[in-house]
Amino acid sequence: MVSSIGRSGGVARPFVPAVTRSILDHACYLNGLDGAGAALLRHGENAIYQLASDPVIVRISRHADVPQHEVVVARWLADLDFPAARLLGNLPQLQQVDGYVITWWELIDEAPPRPRFVDLALALRRLHELPPPQNYTFPEFDPMPRVLSRVAAAGSALSDADREFLTARHDALRGAFESLSFQLDRGPIHGDAHLGNLMRRSNRTVVVIDFEAFMWGPREWDVSVIAAAHKAFDWMEADEYHRCVAAYGWDPLTWDGFMTTRAVRELNMVTWLVQRAGESADVDREIALRLADLRNDDLPRRWRQL
Fold it and tell me: What is the pLDDT of residues 176-214, one digit of tens each?
């Protein structure tokens, strides 16, 4: 259950850093914590802050229905002793503050080196071997759950031509994805597997974070991100990719559905970044680059990992 505490009549204010920072301060005050000096780690689907005063990570969710699912997933993974982010047990989870939902997490004692794609392959193999929870049914996977809502909410960040192009591409890719034949068994998947959702502890254990996209679906979706990193974005060399294939035990590039999943992933990446329009000149340049590249399937994707 989500408890509601707020000053805005339950109406959420715009999801921008200035607002989420004030929500953080309010949530900390309500729970006897000090938000002074908290660092903003990420601002996308969630605003993620690290407190300076305590080893605590605070997630403020853009979507009110997501955190409850994340809490269930986190507890399932903890019960199975899977290396992943852990909830704090001494603070009220799913507390609604000023129209947004708060979850509290243990700080991960991160240390170098940063996880590599082979770490992602190994984590996905282990994740895909887990038994599903007995008392919870994962939502069915949707490859593009927020593309259209992001396009609709983009305002002046998108031209009319961009909006029409992205909507048409969404519709075409949804039909193409629904017609795919999959090679692997369906089961629990991360849904948003990438290097940014891995962390390495000081004891060298690699842990998985960010559970909002966990679904029941085709495991090809998770593994194909590794192939896209190599084939589409040139983020790794061939020898590293071959180590990833050996670590997971399957090569997405041998599957005839890879190009469709790659295109779907690119569309998700573009519309995710559009949400951050106006944040900085670098972000706006990257949005323009991605929109231009998306119109030509043959162009190499020289996209930055923002």
Answer: 999 999 999 999 999 999 999 999 999 999 999 999 999
- Enter the tokens of residue 88: 């704090």
CA distance 19 to 1: 24
For the chain, how are helix, strand and coil distributed in percent, rounded to 5?
Answer: 40, 15, 40
Kindly list the distances between the CA atom of residue 60 and the CA atoms of 42, 99, 260, in Å, as whole numbers in the listed order: 10, 10, 32
Backbone angles phi, psi at 195, to 5 degrees: -60, -30
| 186-189/215-218 β-pairing | antiparallel
Domains and CATH numbers, the chain: 3-106 (3.30.200.20), 117-294 (3.90.1200.10)
Tokens of residue 127, six digits:
């994740």
Residues in the chain: 306
Residue 23 CB burial class (10 angstroms; 0-12, 13-18, ≥19): buried
Nearest CA among 226, 234, 218, 233 for reference residue 252: 226
The structure tokens listed for 134 are 């007995």
Rounded to the nearest angstrom, the gap between the alpha carbon of residue 36 and the centroid of all alpha carbons in its chain is 27
DSSP code, position 119: H
Tokens representing 305 are 């990992």
pLDDT in tens, 9-57: 445 578 889 999 999 999 999 999 999 999 999 888 899 999 999 999 9
Residues 6+ apart with CB under 8 A from 160: none
> Is 187 within 8 Å of 97 (Cβ atoms)?
no
Rounded CA separation 306/282 (Å):
9
Question: What average pLDDT does range 94-110 have in this prediction?
Answer: 94
